[in-house]
Amino acid sequence: MACFLDSSPNRYFLSTGYNVSCTPRCQHLSGTNAKNIMEKLPEFIANHLFLVSLLVAITSLLLWNIFSGAIGVTQIAPTEVTRLINHENAKVLDLRSPDEFEKGHIINSVNLVASALEGSEKELGKYKDKTVVLCCGQGQESIRIARILKMKGFEKLYCLKGGIIAWQSANLPLTKNT
User: Is the dihedral of CA 39, 41, 43, 44 positive or negative?
Assistant: First the structure.
């Protein structure tokens, strides 16, 4: 498709036979066009409401995914957990079900089922002044529980980022002994 300049200014004749009005290219680069763009933004949004709302939804979900999980909770890698266990005598609380816990858990960890957490206030109280690492299957449940424990006064509280799956991926050992 070829484009030829017609005798009238700013008119182009396409080889397909359509007469198209066009503005010179250099005008798009001028600073005064920023004002024109801002003036046409509401019209663009009104004409493309679905696309704009889709952009807003995807952006908000992306930001929520990035920032909501870790607000107020410190997530640490498996190697950092081993450092805390060895140097700060951190206590690991495993939030998985007893069946999953018996299949393999971090050595010397204590199994507390996340759903029964409200009833285990007495048992949790003895860990309040210690360094505590929460772990679960994939790392999501421990973040939720960590927020609850933060509100109850736990200060040295960490979550195993990625859960037991990340622990196994780092080739760290699990034990079946209680």
Answer: positive
Tokens 């992306």 correspond to 62
Based on the fold, state whether residues 11 and 95 are members of the same structural domain.
no
Residues sharing a CB contact under 8 Å with residue 54, sequence separation 6 or more, in sequence order: none
Q: What is the pLDDT of residues 17-52, one digit of tens each?
A: 555 555 554 444 455 677 788 888 899 999 999 999
**Pairing of β 19-21 and β 132-135:** unpaired
Residue 52 domain-assigned? no
* Six-digit token string for 49: 């409401």
Q: Evaluate whether residue 58 is within a structural domain.
A: no
Residue 94: inside a domain, yes or no?
A: yes
What is the C-alpha separation between 87 and 101, in angstroms, rounded?
A: 24
Contact between residue 112 and residue 123 where contact means Cβ atoms under 8 Å apart: yes
